[in-house]
Amino acid sequence: MSDVVSLCYHGVSPSWPSTLAVTQQQLYAQVAWFVRRGYRPTTVRDAVRGAPEGRVLVITFDDALRSVHGLALPVLERLGAVATVYAPSRYVASGEPMAWPEVAAHLATVHAGELEPMLPRELQAVARRGWEVGSHTCTHPWLPRLDDATLASELSASKAELEALLELPCDTLAYPFGAHDDRVATATAVAGYEAAVTLPTRVGRWPEAPGERERMTLPRIGIYRADEWRRFRLKVARPLRALRAGPAWDLVTALRGSR
Ligand SMILES: [Zn+2]
Hints:
Layout: E1 2-9, E2 11-12, E3 21-22, H1 24-36, E4 40-42, H2 44-49, E5 54-62, H3 66-78, E6 84-87, H4 89-94, H5 120-128, E7 132-135, H6 148-166, E8 172-174, H7 182-190, E9 195-197, H8 212-215, E10 221-222, H9 229-245, H10 248-257
Parallel strand pairs: 1-5, 1-10, 2-3, 4-5, 5-6, 6-7, 8-9
Bound molecules: zinc ion.
C-alpha cells in the first residue's frame, strides 16, 4: 500500500508577485513538512517504474525557470530531496525567456528575468544531483488544440531535442497548462514517453500499478504563491487524506468513471 503525493511548482522568487512563484521559505516549509512525516522524495520516472512503497513525495517544477536551479535546488538539497523539472525544449535551446500569451505580460515588468529558462548546463547540473529532466513540449502550446501532425511533433521533437542537448534520456512529460484529452494522451504514449503528468482541478489518487492510460494522466497538486501555510495544509491534507480515505472517494471515482 503506497501513499504518493505529487506537487507541481513553477518558479521560486523572493519578490516576483506572480502566482507561479513561491518563496524559498514556502518551498522549504512545504517539503520539510512531508519529509518530517516520512515521505520519501522521488522523481516521476522512479515513482512510475518503482511501484512505490509507503509514503512517497513527487516534487515537480514546470517550465524549467532559472530560479529552479538558483533557488529551489539549494532548498531541496538541504532536505535531501530530488525533483523532476519539465523543460520546453525550444526555450532551453534558444535561451529566450518564456513568451507564451499566459506569461508574456511579465516580460514588460522588472521581473522579466524570472521567465528565463535554465541553461543546458544548469539542467545537467540538477540531473547530476539525481533530478529527472522531462519534456514540457517544444513551445508550450495547448496540446488539445493542435492538429495531429503538430501534436506529434511537439511531443517527439521535444523529447529528441532534450535528449540531444543533455545527453540524457527524456522519459516523462508534463502537459502545458495540464491540458490533455484522450487523443493527446495516446499521442504521448506513441511518442515514446513512459508517463505524463497533469494538473487536474480535482486531484485523484496516484495509481498503485498504473496501466498505460493511467500513466499518461498522473495527477498533481498545483502549489502557488497564494498557498500560505494553512491553505497549503488544506490543499495537500484534506483531499488526499480525508476524501480519498473515506467512502466519499468511491463516489468521486464512480462519478469520474461515468463521465
Ligand atoms: Zn508550463
